[in-house]
Design brief:
This protein is an alpha+beta fold. It has 17 helices and 24 strands. Strands 4-7-9-8 form a four-stranded mixed β-sheet. The protein has a three-stranded antiparallel β-sheet with strand order 2-5-6. Strand 16 and strand 17 form a beta hairpin.
């Protein structure tokens, strides 16, 4: 495995090195040249419109160089940014911008500066050091308290490589927490404030279980598990998957009991989930291909290969097409989300007016349908004409994207998972140059949207359109998938709801630009507001980066981490050492390019 290169150190701003000693005032690293102390009321012209009337009065920012009447953020118009530095013992978090913001009928910000703050470091902020030295070149911070109240504690690392390995290993620890040790099935969600035995073991997510299989392979490749341990885990999971509730065509429900593998749902009404079936199969086949290469000809590998093949062959992916009458039809053109025991199908997507389907993460299900029906046959000569037409119309979208944001072509306006999940498990996506270019375009659009008035964020890793828990008061529900808004009627702020950002979405874009995304992840670790500590061994042993709200600082997702969403964090981090080709190599199950 490679070591994260020394340029990662250079990608951090130089002031990071001094934060633990509290030796000087800390200039906001997003704008290191602004807020010069000789001009305390200036250096904040970003967004100012000449001749416009101020909409925000002058304002102070506690514990900063803007904390006196003589050094306030000057009165400004909507979009004016006030650059600031923090007093010693504090670090800056967020952009401080003149703005107004409302959501779900709540006036959250009205004509005032908001978004930036100076967060206090704990009096004895360094809780412990990891590495052979005793410096703090790379800090990881997390919420704590001392005699003075809430503060940020610090774990110190000698190198960026060491800090990132800690974060990656911590993510795998979270996957271990989600895994039922008796069956190898993985939970839909984990509460990091709960111990293992108190998790909700009735809710195993079979798509997440596929991702868990992928990460057992990652753990083996990273050296976190021995071959015996990894293969035991994989084989236990595969064996359990042969016993889960399935329909007569092999499709599976999304959720089953992790102890029994059985669904308590009325599947006649709720149906089998084709998206979960595809994601689960993606993990099954990934583990098969990985161990066939990593540990060939061993008895454990033979068992893994045979069991994985049995699972794949039991699923009739080539029967997924939905007819106009709402029933599975070999000549249909609908790609459904659900199929029922009586062959009804629903939530079917059909070709759009330009002849191509809209893209979503069901890509892996569609890919398996094509491989099962047409694999090995020359292009244009597949015996299953309907599946071949479907595949061509699906694949054609990448050459004809019909969505964009600020000049970035997009497959969809939905969250980062939509392109990150296919990158993990579908060779037809991760090996394709056009999809890879669109993957990067999604990352660039994501950052641009967070820099816009929708969030006034976007720097130091504060972006990441994701799905996950949120607060109902600002989102209208307890779970939300974020998306880019291009609706003029929504105004420049779009539908940003709780102004959540998801670090797992950031990390999942690592293959798009490793240098920039690595710097963003290290900045998130440095700033500490998204860090969650896992209740394993001791509080400081493992840490992951969770979803956070910009407008409700007291909220985090420690009560409920949805594993399908969090998966992007370990995926992206792992590519630093295993490279993105790890995923394209071991999702290439038929040793051919298409």
């Amino acid at each position: 495995m490679a070591t994260v290169k020394s340029w990662l150190m250079l990608s951090l701003v130089c002031s990071v090195h001094h934060t633990v000693s509290h030796a000087r005032k800390y200039v906001h690293p997003s704008h290191p040249g602004h807020g010069h102390p000789s001009h305390p009321g200036h250096g904040q012209v970003h967004g100012h419109r000449s001749g416009a009337q101020p909409s925000c009065p002058a304002a102070m920012l506690p514990h900063s160089n803007r904390s006196t009447a003589a050094s306030t953020c000057a009165a400004g118009v909507d979009g004016t940014e006030c650059f600031y530095s923090c007093d010693q013992g504090f670090i800056p978090i967020g952009r401080h911008v003149c703005q107004t913001y409302a959501t779900q009928g709540h006036k959250v910000i009205t004509n005032s500066y908001a978004g930036g703050r100076c967060a206090r470091l704990c009096a004895n902020s360094t809780t412990h050091h990891q590495g052979p030295g005793n410096g703090c070149a790379i800090p990881l911070r997390y919420s704590a308290s001392d005699a003075q109240g809430a503060c940020l504690a610090t774990v110190c690392f000698d190198t960026a490589d060491g800090a990132l390995r800690h974060l990656a290993r911590s993510n795998y620890a979270l996957w271990q927490l989600a895994r039922n040790p008796s069956t190898g099935l993985y939970l839909d969600h984990v509460k990091v404030t709960y111990a293992n035995e108190t998790q909700t073991w009735s809710d195993a997510h079979l798509g997440v279980t596929g991702l868990g299989l992928v990460f057992e392979c990652v753990a083996h490749a990273m050296g976190w598990l021995s071959s015996d341990e990894a293969q035991h885990n994989v084989l236990q999971t595969l064996t359990s998957l042969t016993r889960v509730t399935r329909g007569r065509r092999g499709f599976i429900p999304t959720v089953v009991d992790s102890n029994t593998g059985k669904s308590s749902a009325n599947l006649t009404k709720q149906g089998y989930a084709l998206m979960a079936t595809g994601l689960n199969t993606g993990g099954v086949m990934f583990a098969r291909t990985y161990f066939a290469a990593a540990k060939p000809q061993t008895p454990a590998t033979r068992n893994i290969v045979e069991t994985a093949d049995a699972i794949f062959n039991a699923i009739q992916f080539d029967s997924i097409l939905c007819g106009s009458d709402g029933r599975l039809d070999p000549n249909g053109d609908g790609i459904p989300m659900l199929a029922y025991p009586d062959d009804r199908c629903s939530a079917a997507q059909r070709p759009q007016p330009d002849g191509y389907y809209g893209f979503n993460e069901e890509h892996y299900t569609v890919w398996f349908a094509f491989e099962q029906a047409c694999g090995g046959q020359p292009a244009g000569q597949c015996t299953n004409k309907a599946i071949e037409r479907m595949w061509n119309a699906w694949q054609g979208r990448r050459h004809h994207p019909n969505l964009s944001y600020q000049g970035n072509n997009l497959l969809s306006l939905w969250s980062s998972y939509l392109v990150q999940l296919p990158f993990m498990v579908a060779h037809s996506f991760n090996s394709d140059a056009t999809y890879r270019a669109l993957f990067k375009s999604h990352w660039e659009a994501d950052r641009a949207f967070y820099r816009s008035p929708a969030y006034y964020a976007g720097s130091r890793g504060r972006y990441g359109l994701g799905a996950g828990p949120t607060e109902s008061w600002c989102a209208g529900g307890g779970y939300l998938a974020d998306q880019i808004s291009t609706d003029p009627a929504a105004g420049p702020r779009g539908a940003a709801h709780c102004r959540n950002y998801s670090p797992y979405g950031v990390a999942g874009y690592m293959p798009a630009d490793p240098e920039t995304v690595t710097a963003d992840v290290l900045a998130l670790m440095h700033d500490g507001e998204t860090t969650l500590s896992l209740p394993l061994d001791t509080k400081d042993t493992y840490h992951v980066l969770g979803r956070k709200s910009i407008i409700d600082l007291a909220w985090n997702q420690s009560y409920d981490i949805t594993m399908v969403d969090m998966s992007s964090q370990l995926f992206g981090l792992s590519t630093l050492w295993l490279t993105p080709e790890f995923y394209s190599n071991y999702s290439n199950h038929w040793a051919r390019e298409r």
